[in-house]
Write a structure and sequence with these properties.
Layout (H helix, E strand, L loop, with lengths): L2 H17 L12 H9 L1 H20 L5 H17 L1 H21 L1 H5 L15 H6 L7 E11 L3 E9 L6 E7 L13 H9 L3 E5 L11 H16 L5 E11 L1 H11 L8 E5 L5 H6 L9 H9 L7 H6 L13 E6 L7 H13 L4 E6 L13 H18 L1
Parallel strand pairs: 3-4, 3-5, 5-6, 6-7, 7-8
Antiparallel strand pairs: 1-2, 2-4
Length: 396
Amino acid sequence: MSIYSGLVLLVCLVSFLLCIWIVIPAPIFSLLPLSVGTPEISPWLVVINTIIAIALTLAISQNQSGWAFRVALSFSIAALILSTLPLAQYPQARKNADQVMATVLGNDALNAPKVNRSKVRSKPFILADVFRGITPSPVRETLDIPFANYPNGVTLKMNVYRPTEVGNYPAIVMIYGGAWQRGDAYQNAMFSRYMANQGYVVWTISYRHAPTYHFPSQIEDVRSALEFIHQHAAEYETDLKRVGIMGRSAGAQLASLAAYNPSPIAFRAVVNYYGPVNLTAGYYDVPNPDPIGSRSVLTAFLGGTPDEKGAEYFSASPLNSVRPNLPPSLLIYGGRDHIVMSKFGKGLAQALEAQQNKVVFIEIPWADHAFDAVFQGVSNQFALYYTERFLAWALR
């Protein structure tokens, strides 16, 4: 086998090994970016694998190759098949999401009649955006606003993103994820700019982290931030009658707790991206594989096991705060999530429905946890489409 043939075989093998993460969950945390990101760049992989397969087929048909090219072609075809799986699942996922949106909110929510239609996404997936990216227009940003001070020099800060024109706008309070242990108000800035460009004031808040600070420190920090927003709403052009709250992962747990319990702000919507909702069940029913070590994350957050900290696990679980007359909820989970399994989100949706609350549960079958980390990726485009319509329905 020549050096050239060996390189061709190596390239096809690497492509195949990358594409298998579309169907195989990450067994350890260091491999999680592959499991999360590969489905999101699958259109790129389809193009690359198609080009490679065509080139190899032509070379083989012209008798310009040996056995190495034939093996390489097998890897290339297998990689191509794997890379098409997210797009193959898209039509049914869209049908399911459209149906639940229309059933719960009405057809007007899908049509987004209350917003500037030139700014909302026309479809849940636009192929060109995967390649060219999604770049929001400039917005006004006010950064590092202190809202709480604690001993030992701990100061919590928030950022505010606003449309370019002065006005009075509906608002979104954003809470980042990170296993309650890391992150800051700068996370998800692309999303914040995107929504500010659509006519929202976006407040991104911070909170103290575990394991130095155990629950309920984090929800106390969220309430402090909400008090600040309530007091300074006019200064930052926020209409307090039209406010939603949104979080990702650990931030979604905090956002849901804030929305489902007494709050300084009467929320009109809550958006939950892959958030833990039943922490006791999450401790005993861990995913397999479990790349972040779910039990250690929960004990760091709550200060012990459910046997030791049962009251904390109960009060930290949004599922236990479900009651009638809660704000409408949008829950979006990945079908391949091995950090927060989608069945927990579905359980929360069923509990909300049982209490006659409006809830839209959407599962993205090919997506892993933190799917929106790739902003122009297949899953985030899908989530954006329904999130912007839900928020327009609830807050406009």
